[in-house]
Amino acid sequence: MAGLLREAAPASSGAPHTALSGGTGGPGALTPLLRTVLAALAEGAGRRGGPLAAGTPAELAADVARVFAEADGDDALRRLTDVLAHGSADPADPACAAHLHCPPLAVAVAADLAVSALNPSQDSWDQAPAATAMETLLLGELAQLVGYDPAEAAGVLTSGGTESNLMGLMLARDRVLGRETGRQIELSGVPGSGPRPRIFTSAAAHFSVQRSAALLGLGEDAVVPVPVDDQLRMKPKALAAALSACVAEGDLPVAIVATAGTTDTGAVDPLRTCASLAAQYGAWLHVDAAYGGGALLSDRLAPLVGGIALADSVSLDWHKLGWQPVAAGIFLVKRAETYASLARRAVYLNPQDDEEAGYPSLLGLSLRTTRRADAFKIAVTLRTLGREGLGRLVDACHELAHSGAAAVRAHPRLELHADPVLTAFLFRYLPENTDPEHIDRINAGLRRRLLREGRAVVGRTELPGEGPGRVRLKLTLLNPHTTTDEVQRLLDAVVAAGRAEEEL
Amino acid sequence: MAGLLREAAPASSGAPHTALSGGTGGPGALTPLLRTVLAALAEGAGRRGGPLAAGTPAELAADVARVFAEADGDDALRRLTDVLAHGSADPADPACAAHLHCPPLAVAVAADLAVSALNPSQDSWDQAPAATAMETLLLGELAQLVGYDPAEAAGVLTSGGTESNLMGLMLARDRVLGRETGRQIELSGVPGSGPRPRIFTSAAAHFSVQRSAALLGLGEDAVVPVPVDDQLRMKPKALAAALSACVAEGDLPVAIVATAGTTDTGAVDPLRTCASLAAQYGAWLHVDAAYGGGALLSDRLAPLVGGIALADSVSLDWHKLGWQPVAAGIFLVKRAETYASLARRAVYLNPQDDEEAGYPSLLGLSLRTTRRADAFKIAVTLRTLGREGLGRLVDACHELAHSGAAAVRAHPRLELHADPVLTAFLFRYLPENTDPEHIDRINAGLRRRLLREGRAVVGRTELPGEGPGRVRLKLTLLNPHTTTDEVQRLLDAVVAAGRAEEEL
Questions:
Q1: Which of A478, A373, A504, A438 is nearest to A93 (CA)?
Q2: Is B214's CB within 8 Å of A180's CB?
Q3: pLDDT tens-place string over residues A415-427
Q4: Nearest residue, CB atoms, A160 vs list B100, B179, B370
Q5: Does residue B90 contact residue A86 with C-beta atoms inside 8 Å?
Q6: CA separation for the pair B191, B202 (Å, rounded)
Q7: How far apart are CA A103 and CA A435, in angstroms?
Q8: ipTM of the complex, rounded to two decimals
Q9: What global pTM score does this model have?
Q10: Do A184 and B207 touch (CB under 8 A)?
Q11: Residue A301 has pLDDT above 70, yes or no
Q12: B429 φ, ψ to 5°?
């Protein structure tokens, strides 16, 4: 079998367009097509020659539209892959460091090919016999990683932190309000006189908390933003006061959402305090560890998220600090018996007599029906590198962030917001004119300049609060192969772009 | 570049485990790993030797657990891929025909590899410059396919029909109830005195409608099941009566969900009647065309879903009649201005000044944040085969279903439920003893026997209603390369398994 890729015909005369990826013939049909893809990826990346292609969004969209209009038949795969590669912001390039957007490991990508080719779907056993078993095994290991008892925990693979956070809040809502009680959205326009459900989360938490509250019919204003300290962590006293005020007003504290690793700074809320307040007020504790969950892989960093096992539910994202291609979200609950909202009998998917005959079903664990076997690539990665190997990658990114922050602090024209907690930090360029609006404009402009010139993909955000002077640049270091010199060059490019903006 | 796959070292001595898939070095790192995957896929499929591996779920799970415990380091990718392939229910096998679970096209799988390797994320332009443009272009083409004006329509790629249906119902709810008005779930336990939101859908509609109503805080009992005819289509008079009764009771008809292609029989609700009743009662019309949307690819079958363009929103699933690996869901709305619920400003993803500078953002179109570029594989497939080429695959599956139904009708021990509409039909085996409970037991048992013996993956469902005698088997024919002889042999295997069950 080792010569498999060598035996196939060249792509141009390749298999008919309607060849399938499965069965014993699938690998032969895939061979010339994969060769085409690899060549086009190399070609597109070579033409790009950096973290992204130079040009405006409109220019790039015009390129794509042209290829979209021209590509046809045999040549479509090559041409579209080439334009996708050329027009990507590639997180494998050291100068692409804006978002929680990781460069995937080649081994995870290869594993994901097997999933595409076989196309298991996790909504019934008879669409995914082995993949069902594998997801269950993987979730047991991830529950242990979090510190849950795997015999009591349960979970599911998700599309990411947003879906996981939604699931945590759904369980919290339904524990209080009931799933099928037919309680109705009130239409009178006058707030009900009964207790109002409330969700507590920090002002620096992910926007998906508000979005979930709206989706769940609780309204965005069910979310009570709790003030943060200057490291953007929830203030314990402020949380206690908000909960106390909620109860005094006759309202109902449904959930506390603590963040273990905020998107911008990696800040970790005081998890143990959140857990004891949740217990005191009878609220569900969900920990959004989409980013900070990566610390669990590193002996050195794991203490940062100490207390996470006290949560009723947790979000993890292995497409962040886990180096998986999207999607690799994970939702875990501490006690399987609290995971009832989605239990569902579909006569065509999980009839009762099949379950009694030993056919397991994951249908009732997910918001989705058809569902890709995203557990597979994670399982392969974990088996290939081990927790230790992955922990070394986490540590490398953490160290890189510290060296980048030190370089910022050492530069007279750069201002550091705070030392990195995980692998990201905020900073800004300081122009001559220190008017806050001017500083904001220069920083936003220099970032777009770097994009337009194809030099760098740097993050940009705003500190919580009101008024000018809150724009910050961000480096999110997720490429473990990036060197400290490369981070230094990236910061030099930021300064050069800032100077150019000042000269406009 | 054509020799790329040939130059790499063999997998066993391959690249370090931490090699990345991106950049100019990615293709070289992927080469030996992909070779390993292709060989393991062929090996696993060969050992399986049929639609699925023989054995009980417990036996198969034990196999997986053993490999899971043993696989390690260099060997993990090969061993886990092998066990995944061996333990798959492979829709590329002609005897795997249970679900809307398609065998993917090799070209779509190859395209999906490019997405895994480059890892664009659709939540911000600077994580997906080309992929953002490509998704927008593709959605314009799909809007046209549905019959929408692409200049007025909008949409997004989703994880599948369940997510798309949820989005349609969310827009319907928010149009009536408002997104951020802070309206509250009533906690008194006494139904409110105001009008209650109601959703109308057929008794044969997908369970995700009820699930969505629960998730959205409307309660499952907000869904009014409308009676169906013997072809499992919504009865127009029954829908009109249900709407009229709703209004008479002072309740609010929020949405009608029509199905274009039910999961079990492919039944298409009377779309034009649904549209005029929706207009008359001011309700949102969502058409779940996750399955039947495939008819739009075929000149011959497109009339089956005539009137679909009258819907306010539509679900399509190209991982059904579209031959894509999961996920390839599509949600479309007729008028972009009705698509406001998710509009969202995240300072770190789509700041206003970036949008003003021409940087587009798809963030506000999706329930997700991080989001894989599933549009790419669809775009490549559409460019490679064209609508016409895909339409031929749809027609082939449609003809196969008709020949299968004719074979059922011709067999004295098989009973057809109804002629196929799209590519699926229901039937059952008739044992000697025609007691309804006995017939159900034999049919459920023969299906598990076929699974256990590794002979076939046949669907099983129940007709709507109460009481015994409603269990049916199902063939869902999605493999365009399957022959009529192979379908005949599959039916013969069903009969043989039925006889064996009778002899127990």
A1: A478
A2: yes
A3: 999 999 999 999 9
A4: B370
A5: no
A6: 25
A7: 37
A8: 0.95
A9: 0.96
A10: no
A11: yes
A12: -85, 135
